[in-house]
Amino acid sequence: MGGGGQLTEPEEPISGRAAGVYTWEEVQSHCNRNDQWLVINRKVYNITQWVKRHPGGIRVISHYAGEDATEAFTAFHPDLKFVQKFLKPLQIGELAATEPSHDRNKNATIIQDFHTLRAQVESEGLFQARPLFFCLHLGHILLLEALAWLIIWVWGTSWTLTFLSAVMLATTQLQAGWLQHDFGHLSVFKKSSWNHLLHKFVIGHLKGASANWWNHRHFQHHAKPNIFSKDPDVNMLHVFVVGATQPVEYGIKKIKYMPYHHQHKYFFLVGPPLLIPVYFNIQIIHTMISRRKWVDLAWSLSYYLRYLCCSIPMFGLFGSVVFISFIRILESHGFVWVTQMNHLPMDIDHEKNQDWLSMQLQATCNIKQSLFNDWFSGHLNFQIEHHLFPTMPRHNYHLVAPLVRALCEKHGIPYQVKTLQQGFADAFQSTQRWVQTFVHECC
């Protein structure tokens, strides 16, 4: 579950009732940290030991323990036949013939219709990438970064030129972030190994971050978007209260780690400016060292070495630190607003065990298409399509969007599209709305 990392085969079949026949009640009872089963295409797998070797990380696959993981498994893996051989030793049986194919209250009709839509999209070749698109995207990143340095090398480090260079470098960081996102989702090359290699290059050498950190964090978000305790993007570390239920829970329990009635004010001081330069950087360093990801560390250090070689001759060591901190703050603002305008105003709640289409549509919305919006957001203005088909090349999102909208209309599922300005406004207004809920329950 989750496409990041390299696969290693299980050493031997996991012990269990060989060729057993199970009910959903039995499967659902195996959802503890030390006892995890899941179902894919009606086959039951014991993943208790395999989770430690899972390329996408322990957590993303554990989030489906005791559940039907068929839709998530299909969404994350571009080469299903290749991955199937790693599942075979884990199989302990299958669902009883009298059991439905899907657990709990998932809508079988929606699941079948979405399966049909995916088959149609595959037959139309919409999972096939255009390498030239991504080559040109990489080229424009490298060109923009070169121009940013050239400006201050040639014309000096005046305040105006330094600011202009910082804005350009922050833009390259944002655009490199969208490009590493493409490689991380295995949506560029047919061979996963090429995606992994380019992912490490872009996120490591061009951004100074860690592919392993990104894989383990981001695939959780896709597997269970906007779900407390499962999506790390809504784990606010008690700094903010989000969604319709968390402010109520904190208010009733009188939990006041922060002055939440002012969170819409300190959001601008803590959220957009500090997410990347402080929180993400701490996480990245901790991940690389604690998990001994020395290759990621080498790629990351190559970025900072390259940066210092360019900046120290003009700014000195202290000035270089200040300069990159400012670049990171600018980048962080862009990243937060682009990523959160699609998710923050949407439903944020505890696990509801929904089908793939319903779960993703409740947690995501789109921003209207335009040349600027497509470029600025890395085509994540088509957030709905990206979440439904995470391995699809981004240049095909606009082609599948009408099909997705039609399917949503058929089943009465809201398909939201906003302007860029409305997306930004809704993200901020959500923090204000949650404040009112918290104050009402607390007082």
TrEMBL record:
The chain crosses the membrane at residues 266-285, 305-327. It is an enzyme of class 1 (oxidoreductase). One of its GO terms (cellular component) is membrane. Pathway: Lipid metabolism; polyunsaturated fatty acid biosynthesis. It comes from Sander lucioperca. InterPro entries: Cyt_B5-like_heme/steroid-bd, Cyt_B5-like_heme/steroid_sf, FA_desaturase_dom, Fatty_acid_desaturase. Keywords: Fatty acid biosynthesis, Fatty acid metabolism, Lipid biosynthesis, Lipid metabolism, Membrane, Oxidoreductase, Transmembrane, Transmembrane helix. The keyword Translocase does not apply. It catalyses: (8Z,11Z,14Z,17Z)-eicosatetraenoyl-CoA + 2 Fe(II)-[cytochrome b5] + O2 + 2 H(+) = (5Z,8Z,11Z,14Z,17Z)-eicosapentaenoyl-CoA + 2 Fe(III)-[cytochrome b5] + 2 H2O. Belongs to the fatty acid desaturase type 1 family. Its main location: membrane. It is a multi-pass membrane protein. This is acyl-CoA (8-3)-desaturase. It is found in: Membrane. PROSITE patterns: CYTOCHROME_B5_2. It comes from the Eukaryota. Its EC number is 1.14.19.44. Residues 19-96 form the Cytochrome b5 heme-binding domain. GO terms for biological process: unsaturated fatty acid biosynthetic process. One of its GO terms (molecular function) is acyl-CoA (8-3)-desaturase activity. The lineage of its organism: Eukaryota, Metazoa, Chordata, Craniata, Vertebrata.
